[in-house]
Design brief:
Elements lengths: L1 E5 L14 H12 L5 E3 L4 E8 L2 E8 L6 H12 L6 E7 L7 E4 L8 H10 L5 E6 L8 H5 L5 H23 L1
Parallel strand pairs: 1-4, 1-5, 5-7
Antiparallel strand pairs: 2-3, 3-4, 6-7
Helix pairs in contact: 1-5, 2-3
Length: 175
């Protein structure tokens, strides 16, 4: 069994913001599998099950805020008996150009507070990370930039990146 967690912030005010690209990826996964999210209070997350290849996959959107994502992830892993090597975390990355993705099974948080929270709760760094590039601005502070809505001229690149992220995760799970 695998766990795919899309990071983001709960609430309508954060929908379609750069910081919620992780939520967007798992929303696409669930929709394509005709699966609906249900809230799991014990795990602080909206959760659904899908099938990828021969594998059952738990898909989740933590309902903690980004900086507390680790609380939800550790509970999801315990609840479903998932080991770190079967965990995929999808999130935004300002250090990658808009629309690029990177997939790694270890590394640093690069200052991402959601990933730092997961490190603290897992007490380790060995899980799959899928970074979706959102770029950065020299004119807008980091927090304001990530919490801004995705502009129309970036929508196509972001959508392509979300689909690439799904393809990469599916390929690794089917392997």
């Amino acid at each position: 069994m695998y766990l795919i967690v899309g990071l983001g912030n709960p609430g309508r005010e954060y929908e379609n913001t750069r910081h919620n690209v992780g939520f967007m990826v798992v929303d696409i996964l669930a929709k394509s599998a005709k699966a609906e999210f249900k809230h799991n209070r014990k795990c602080f997350a909206d959760v659904t099950d899908i099938q990828i290849g021969l594998h059952r996959v738990i898909v989740a959107k933590p309902q903690t805020y980004m900086n507390e994502s680790g609380r939800s992830v550790i509970e999801l892993m315990k609840w479903n008996n998932i080991s770190p090597e079967h965990l995929f975390v999808i999130y935004d990355d300002m250090d990658l150009p808009v629309g690029e993705i990177r997939v790694k099974d270890k590394g640093s948080s690069a200052g991402h507070h959601g990933i730092e929270s997961i490190f603290r709760h897992l007490q380790g760094h060995n899980f799959w990370r899928v970074r979706v590039g959102i770029g950065r601005s020299d004119l807008i502070k980091g927090a304001d930039y990530v919490l801004a809505r995705i502009p129309a001229d970036e929508t196509g690149k972001i959508t392509d990146a979300l689909l690439m992220a799904i393809n990469e995760v599916e390929a690794l799970i089917k392997k």
